[in-house]
Write a structure and sequence with these properties.
The protein has 95 residues and is mainly alpha-helical. The chain has 4 helices and 2 strands. Helix content is 64%, strand content 6%.
Length: 95
């Protein structure tokens, strides 16, 4: 699974993070290395959709947080992926 938007939402599901922290977290839990362009493109799209928002800070790094709408969207997407995984694994066992 390498959809940058889902990976960013999943990273933010356990707390606010800035871009570099998200990149490290995503690499740790998904074994996917997102480049800065891919990461910040996903962040922009997610912010435009209202699924994440920036957190006010005095630090030079900009952290982001998952919104309620983002949490709902992530849950829906993961449920769909879970169905695909369950079906795929079941079919592999039958083959």
């Amino acid at each position: 699974m390498s959809d940058p938007s889902i990976l960013v939402l999943a990273s933010l599901a356990n707390g606010d993070k800035h871009g570099y922290a998200m990149m490290e977290d995503i690499e740790a839990f998904a074994a996917v290395k997102l480049g800065p362009g891919t990461l910040y493109g996903a962040i922009t799209r997610l912010e435009e959709r209202g699924w994440i928002r920036p957190v006010k800070t005095k630090d030079r790094r900009q952290p982001y947080t998952l919104t309620a709408a983002g949490r709902t969207h992530l849950s829906e997407q993961l449920s769909g992926l879970q169905r695909v995984v369950k079906t795929g694994l079941g079919r592999l066992k039958q083959a």
